[in-house]
């Protein structure tokens, strides 16, 4: 395995991977579709490019469709890509109340109203969680699932064990939501800046991640974090009947022990899915589509064809 983490100093290499990933996942998931009412789509907007078999592409926390556009453009000759941007993230207006349950419900409505036949779902981070959520809730409506560095349950990233339960995390989740509700946009930007080293390798891509976070609504980010920490999909993912590819990023991991621990944790979360595969990219950091775009596009294209 490749141990090149592109860290600036040896001391930086020793930073604990799990601490960084917790920061990453906590502070960070063509034309407009014309037949979907604005009321029904209040929790997200859609950009559609390409022609062919439908594919939904969902970004992560405080990201929007821009992270997926280059990948979508590479696939547009064979697929119809529906690029999702979630309310409250990267300059999109926020909604009141629950966020992720509303997104799930309205995405399923979108699939029905657009008459999409078992679309594949590709999600990054929070978007990967949404992909697992859609496929376990409505397995007959969802095709191939490609989850990019995201899990059915986030909390074990903090605790380093899949024994973690929602009950254990309830207090911490509530505290984080309250903290984000009181945060200004500048404070959100400053907090995001602390974790940029594990988001992406290049300064340009790190700035892209920071700009999207700076344009996000802190309250929306806090609500999403609360819901990620208090929603455990592991008891439901056995319902998934389609093929699942989970891709992890280990480029920010300091050593082989961290890579083994992450592999075990990720594998355990998808163990009950009948047709699931786990693969890691050992050079890319959390935003794999920014760090290793050609590699990721090739893996996605292969998974969609299989």
TrEMBL record:
Residues 55-297 form the AB hydrolase-1 domain. Pfam families: Abhydrolase_6 (PF12697). The keyword Hydrolase applies. Keywords: Hydrolase. Gene3D superfamilies: alpha/beta hydrolase (3.40.50.1820). The keyword Hydrolase applies. One of its GO terms (molecular function) is hydrolase activity. InterPro entries: AB_hydrolase_1, AB_hydrolase_fold, Carboxylesterase_BioH. This is Alpha/beta hydrolase.
């Amino acid at each position: 395995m490749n141990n090149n983490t592109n860290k600036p100093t040896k001391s930086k290499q020793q930073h604990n991977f799990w601490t960084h990933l917790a920061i990453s996942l906590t502070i960070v998931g063509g034309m407009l579709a014309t037949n979907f009412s604005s009321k029904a789509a209040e929790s997200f907007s859609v950009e559609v490019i390409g022609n062919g078999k439908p594919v939904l592409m969902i970004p992560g926390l405080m990201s929007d469709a821009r992270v997926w556009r280059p990948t979508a453009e590479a696939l547009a000759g064979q697929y119809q890509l529906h690029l999702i941007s979630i309310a409250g993230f990267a300059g999109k207006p926020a909604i009141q109340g629950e966020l992720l349950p509303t997104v799930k419900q309205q995405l399923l409505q979108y699939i029905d109203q657009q008459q999409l036949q078992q679309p594949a779902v590709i999600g990054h981070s929070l978007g990967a969680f949404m992909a697992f959520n859609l496929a376990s809730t409505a397995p007959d409506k969802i095709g191939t699932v490609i989850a990019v560095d995201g899990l059915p349950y986030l909390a074990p990233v903090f605790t380093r064990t899949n024994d973690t339960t929602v009950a254990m995390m309830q207090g911490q989740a509530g505290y984080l939501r309250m903290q984000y509700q009181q945060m200004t946009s500048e404070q959100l930007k400053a907090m995001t800046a602390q974790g940029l080293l594990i988001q992406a390798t290049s300064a340009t891509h790190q700035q892209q991640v920071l700009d999207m976070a700076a344009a996000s609504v802190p309250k929306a980010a806090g609500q999403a974090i609360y819901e990620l920490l208090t929603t455990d999909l592991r008891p439901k993912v056995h319902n998934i009947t389609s093929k699942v590819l989970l891709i992890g990023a280990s480029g920010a991991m300091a050593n082989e022990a961290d890579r083994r621990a992450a592999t075990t944790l990720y594998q355990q979360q998808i163990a009950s899915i009948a047709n699931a595969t786990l693969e890691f990219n050992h050079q890319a950091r959390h935003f794999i589509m920014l760090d290793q775009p050609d590699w990721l596009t090739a893996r996605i294209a292969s998974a969609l064809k299989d």
